[in-house]
Write a structure and sequence with these properties.
Jelly Rolls; mainly beta; 1 helix; four-stranded antiparallel beta sheet
């Protein structure tokens, strides 16, 4: 009887806790933020990387491009992203983005606090995250 009671308590606790679970889609698309189609995944074995990137206040990143698909979530701060075609994206904490692939761009933290962004890269073991111009 004690085992049954413990099992019921655990089941109730799990059911109650599971009732609070929420799933919100932050970004889902076959296109990057500038409207370009995403490339096909490579045929080699995939490797997923998750990076937390911190950009200090008043910092401009160098012109660069990403050869692989990546997406990010802004944890803190605000960031302006500009392509070499002058397309601009303004991000703030809580925003998600699907980044441009193989397009030259740079980011600027014009704010007074660091930017924190978590970025998910979908490539292979040989893939570079970004290439500077």
């Amino acid at each position: 009887m004690q085992k049954v009671l413990c099992s019921l308590v655990l089941l109730f606790s799990f059911t109650f806790a599971a009732g609070n679970v929420e799933s919100v889609t932050l970004a889902k698309s076959d296109k990057s933020w500038d409207g370009s189609n995403l490339p096909a995944y490579p045929k080699e074995a995939p490797e997923i990387s998750v990076l937390k990137i911190t950009i200090p206040a008043h910092t401009e990143l160098p012109l660069h491009k990403h050869p692989i698909i990546n997406a990010g979530y802004m944890v803190k701060g605000s960031l302006k992203v500009v392509t070499d075609e002058n397309k601009t994206l303004h991000l703030k904490a809580g925003d998600a983005l699907i980044e441009v692939v193989d397009k030259w761009h740079y980011g600027v933290n014009e704010g007074d606090e660091p930017v924190e962004i978590v970025v998910f890269y979908a490539g292979t073991k040989a893939s570079a995250y970004s290439i500077k111009k």
